[in-house]
Amino acid sequence: MTDRNAGVTITHFAEDSEGNQGGKYVAEVPGEKANGYLEWEPRGSDKVRIATHTIVPPEIGGRGIAALLVKRLIADAREQEFKIVPQCSYVEKKFNENSEWADLRVN
Fold it and tell me: For a surface tag, which of 40, 41, 62, 88 has the fewest beta carbons within 10 Å of its beta carbon?
């Protein structure tokens, strides 16, 4: 079985060191110029991030890149103890498919 996600690197870029101004997870695919990304914004002063957009260009589509971006967001939420508002329709879909993430979801 081939790993369609082999070599994908996901990097988190935050506006500031506290993560208070929003940020972006960027997926780089070896050999491709196009990158996928998931953007988020903070919600007030509580530890909540609003997942606003997930974009994967057609050039790198069909490889599970969007799912990897959401999984990284989920992993960071568990590690850094923040909650997520899945405003992005793709992130909402993934939350609906993964009931074990329910404790991270807020509206």
Answer: 62
Quick one: tokens of 21?
Answer: 């101004």
Report d(CA 5, CA 88) in Å as an integer. 22
Which residues, given as ranges, of the chain have pLDDT below 50?
1-3, 19
Q: How far is CA 13 from the centre of its chain?
A: 11
Q: Exposed (0-12), middle (13-18) or buried (19+): which is 40, by Cβ within 10 Å?
A: buried
Q: What is the pTM of this model?
A: 0.89
